[in-house]
Amino acid sequence: MRFKSANNEGNELINISSMIDVMFILIIFFLVTTTFKEEEIDHLVNLPTDKRNQSLSQAKGNLIKINIRENGSFVVMGTQMTEEQLSTWMEGEVKRKPELKVLIRCDQNSKHLYLANVMSICRHVDVPRANIAVRTER
Question: In this predicted structure, what is the pLDDT of residue 58?
Fold first, then answer.
């Protein structure tokens, strides 16, 4: 029968510094490679309220959100655009993605004219589906 000597037990140390280094490298790798989804929501747009709960099914990358502020300015992906710029940009997007869907977020206090103009642009550039966003009551 083999017995361990008492003086051998204190000499065995496990070096965990390399394991900690690997863990930090993995954490940094996952943080760098992770993509965070940024919503195209303009917080200056105050949506009207609707009692029905309808949602727009969205395929990844096929949804454009157009924000219409109270003063009538159009904001897409954080960039303010004129009607002409919006029309030109949307025409290019529809050519690249034929199944494009548009979600129009219009401020409840803005004029109906601005919403009608965006809907007209969508029809003009042959957007297959354009919807109007509302805030639903819970």
Answer: 47
Looking at the domain assignment, is residue 22 inside a domain?
Answer: no
Are 134 and 47 in contact, with CB atoms under 8 Å apart?
Answer: yes
CB-CB contact of 105 with 67 (8 Å): yes
Report the pLDDT value the prediction gives residue 134, as an integer from 0 to 100.
72
Alpha-carbon gap, residue 56 to 40, rounded angstroms: 15
Q: Which amino acid is at 101?
A: K
Which tokens sit at 134?
């509302």
Specify the residue for token string 């003063």.
71
Domain count of the fold of the chain: 1
The letter for the amino acid at 48 is P
CB-based contact 63:39 (threshold 8 Å)? no
Question: Which whole number is the average pLDDT over 114-120?
Answer: 88
Q: For helices 83-96 and 112-124, give the axis angle rounded to 10 degrees.
A: 40
pLDDT of residue 25: 93
d(CA 114, CA 83): 9
Residue 20 lies in a domain: no
